[in-house]
Amino acid sequence: MKSATEYLFFEVPKRMDFVHITPQVQDIVTKSGIKEGLCLVNAMHITASVFINDNESGLHEDYKRWLEQLAPHAPIERYQHNRTGEDNGDAHHKRQIMGREVVVAITDGQLHLGTWERIFYGEFDGRRRKRVLVKVIGE
After folding, report:
1. What is the pLDDT of residues 81-107, one digit of tens each?
2. CATH at 45
3. List of E strands, the chain
4. Following CA atoms 45, 47, 52, 55 in sequence, which dihedral angle do they give, to the nearest 10 degrees?
5. pLDDT for the residue numbered 119
6. Tally of domains within the chain
């Protein structure tokens, strides 16, 4: 079995936003030379997410609104976590909802995604550099 590990880096200028990363992940799979296997894509920060869904801007805006309703940023005093001097208690909750990572099958050297499925990096405490692990294993 072979494996390949690479990182993607993001510095999202907004506090909360989504970045379509399917092409970058596919490039890593292609570069690995692995034809059959699995690809793990993992947000390496506790206020960021990786998830799969449709690449449709209206849906993304719906997600942002829904997440802000579930875990509003302000007032920051609502979160015990923020008593440590942080202001990102909401970001931890949003990450928990959206998930930490995805695993996608690789078939014939391609990410084996459904018709409308795409991979996204979700940022919930932006404006600083963060990384995403991409680990490819297989033959």
Report:
1. 999 999 999 999 999 999 999 999 999
2. 2.60.120.460
3. 2-10, 17-20, 36-43, 48-53, 101-107, 110-111, 118-123, 130-138
4. -120
5. 99
6. 1
Closest listed residue to residue 88, CA positions, set 43, 41, 45: 45
What beta strand segments (E) does 25-107 contain?
A: 36-43, 48-53, 101-107
Does the pTM surpass 0.85? The reply is yes
- Domain with 127 in it: 2-138
Reported confidence tier of residue 47, pLDDT bands at 50, 70, 90: very high
Chain centroid to CA 70: 19
Give how far Cα 103 sits from Cα of 50, 85, 122, 125, Å. 10, 34, 16, 24
